[in-house]
Amino acid sequence: MRIGYARDSPHDQTLIQQQDALKKAGCSNIFIDNAGGGKAKRKGLDKALSLLRPGDTLVVWQLDRLSNTIKELITIMALLEQRGIGLKSLTDNIDTTARGGTQVFRIFGALRILMGERTKAGLRVARAKGRKGGRPKALTPEEVTLLLELYNNEEVSIPEICQQL
What we know:
About 50% of the residues lie in helices and about 15% in strands. It contains 7 helices and 5 strands. The protein has helices at about 15-25, 45-50, 65, 70-85, 100-130, 140-150, 160-165; strands at about 1-5, 30-35, 55-60, 85-90, 95. The protein has a 5-stranded mixed β-sheet, with helices on both faces. Strand 4 (about 85-90) and strand 5 form a beta hairpin. Helix 4 (about 70-85) packs across helix 5. The longest helix has 27 residues, at about 100-130. The radius of gyration is 24 Å and the shape is elongated. The N and C termini lie far apart (about 60 Å).
């Protein structure tokens, strides 16, 4: 079974064009998201993925409609491969169900490994230079000490502590 997925873009309104192409490609169901931002929850994609079974194919008009980032695309590709689901991108001429199509999954898998290795190497270099990851501390050690003293003092309320610090 072929399941279509379309997503609009605030810059390039091609939703109708995508739907027409997906229908022409033989998609039995087409799921749509109108989310413009990369962080928005994509219920249409979630529904499409939940409906797909091994041997099915997820069809998109273009790979950038499936994902906003390479990292997310690689994650989705890995998920599809694990579940035995093919991917077809109509305008990118990618079809993992065609002869040699599994090579596309292997390439994306290799990219995933490469990105992970580069991230780890970058973190090692940063640590060697004395840098620590994560968000900067909101309070200094002195402020943390003061916070604990105020908190343990039953005469000071939490709103007063927040206002002071």
